[in-house]
Write a structure and sequence with these properties.
This protein has strands at 4-5, 10-13, 17-18, 23-30, 52-59, 62-68, 78-84, 89-97, 101-111. The chain is 0% helix and 52% strand. It contains no helices and nine strands. By secondary structure, the protein is mainly beta. The protein is elongated, with a radius of gyration of 16 Å.
């Protein structure tokens, strides 16, 4: 089933520049409720499980980081990892939740 793409607020921290071959720290915080399926609404019904289940980061098309998440991850997940760039290019971030909603962000980096 193709997912819906919505505008999901995400804060992204990628350095604007880096030295060739040096690791850079990448941080992303995604605004998402990460419902576990164990909570109940005011009407007494269970709130359906809906968590980001897959996250990936690609640099110029090649995957440099990925994560599979589940209900143990808190709301508004924050990811912090390192990647190395050998040339200038674009980091592309993508995630999908249990409802099929996809999010995307990107950031360019200049390598000297």
């Amino acid at each position: 089933m193709p997912g819906r793409e919505l505008t999901v607020a995400a804060r992204l921290s990628v350095p604007a520049t880096a030295k060739k071959g040096e690791p850079v720290e990448i941080r992303i915080a995604i605004q998402h409720p990460m419902e576990t399926g164990f909570r109940f609404g005011i009407d007494g019904r269970a709130i359906p499980k809906n968590v980001i289940n897959r996250f990936s980061c690609r640099f110029e098309g090649a995957e440099v980081f990925s994560a599979e998440m589940g209900s143990g991850i808190s709301a508004n997940p924050f990811l912090d990892f390192y990647a190395t760039a050998e040339k200038s290019g674009t980091f592309e971030f993508e995630w999908i939740d249990d409802a099929g909603v996809r999010g995307r962000e990107s950031a360019k980096i200049e390598v000297a």
